[in-house]
Design brief:
By secondary structure, the chain is mostly helical. Helix content is 73%, strand content 2%.
Length: 332
């Protein structure tokens, strides 16, 4: 199979292989550690009977490769777990049971995922608009006062931590100006308008810092593209500068922007811990911190795998977007 379908198929197979490799690494790191694996998995508050039950569920007497196979089998087809008095079926994709709440890990993740996706996708729109727009304008106005001012702003954005941006926004917007109430997460299904207003400051907090990185990357990529021979040819034929910058140079600078955006979106699904904590958003990042604090190992493992999935998925989508933006990628 050749052309774009073959390219997409190869990227899909590569993504599946990468996910399998991630699952092996994560399983070995967390479940092949020295010490009492059952005690670590169950948590410090478990009784000896509970630890023994966990050891039976994990089949610790089996070889490590066989235990991993059972773990992988649970993800693909589901698995049965004994709760002591009954047997509970965990439907695929099964990432285990939380030994702190007795909930299925996938149910916990699905309950937190909409919050994190709402935060990340909304912030992504803002950081692309602000970052790419600023970078293009900075490259277009190279050497002028506008470019120096925008460079200073982006440097300040890179140097300022996200929690500082969030605190300043809350103090100024919610406290002094009273333009918005202090954010309190509301589900989109309950009240779409309040959902948007309550996420506006978290979106800005996450987007302003990221926009600074995108602005610097876009500016550097644009300047590199504007120095290429085909751009000089366009200028020699009298093509307008605005058309050169907007249609030709920006398209040539898209590859690193797409790559950075894919990595950021995938990592931010579980990595926006400071923003989620600052604004009280019950998302994946905040739940992961809680799981680590109470040593709920199945939840930690499940969330690490889900975050890894989003990183791989986002990069696979980025590869497809490369091919759409530049057909030469399909031939490589």
């Amino acid at each position: 199979m050749t052309g774009f379908p073959g390219f997409a198929l190869r990227r899909a197979v590569g993504a599946i292989v990468t996910l399998l490799a991630i699952s092996v690494i994560v399983y070995v790191v967390f479940y092949a550690t020295p010490g009492n694996v059952a005690q670590i998995t169950c948590g410090p508050r478990c009784s000896p009977e509970q630890v023994h039950q966990v050891a039976q569920q994990l089949k610790l007497d089996d070889p490590l490769y066989l235990r991993y196979w059972h773990f992988l089998q649970g993800i693909v087809v589901g698995q049965d777990y004994s709760t002591g008095t009954s047997v509970e079926h965990c439907s695929a994709p099964c990432l285990g049971l939380s030994y702190q709440s007795d909930q299925q890990v996938m149910q916990i993740i699905l309950g937190k995922l909409p919050v994190s996706l709402s935060l990340v996708l909304g912030a992504m729109v803002l950081w692309l608009l602000l970052g790419v727009g600023t970078g293009v304008l900075s490259a277009w106005r190279r050497g002028r006062l506008t470019e120096r001012a925008l460079t200073g702003v982006t440097l300040a954005g890179v140097a300022t931590p996200s929690f500082v941006i969030g605190l300043v926004l809350m103090i100024v917007v919610c406290g002094q100006l009273e333009l918005l109430p202090f954010p309190e997460y509301v589900s989109f299904s309950d009240d779409p308008e309040q959902w948007m207003w309550n996420l506006l400051l978290p979106w800005l907090t996450l987007a302003l810092g990221e926009a600074a990185y995108f602005a610097r990357l876009t500016r550097a990529s644009m300047l590199e593209t504007l120095a290429e021979d085909h751009i000089r040819t366009f200028r020699a034929y009298g093509v307008g500068e605005r058309s050169i910058v907007g249609r030709h140079a920006l398209r040539g600078a898209l590859a690193p922007i797409i790559a950075l955006n894919a990595n950021d979106v995938g990592a931010m699904v579980g990595g926006a811990v400071l923003t989620e904590t600052l604004f009280g958003l019950p998302g994946i990042g905040q739940e992961l911190v809680h799981a680590v604090n109470v040593v709920d190992l199945p939840v930690v493992v499940g969330m690490v795998l889900v975050i890894g999935f989003f990183v791989v998925f986002a990069n696979a989508v980025a590869d497809v977007l490369y091919a759409v933006a530049d057909r030469r990628v399909v031939l490589t």
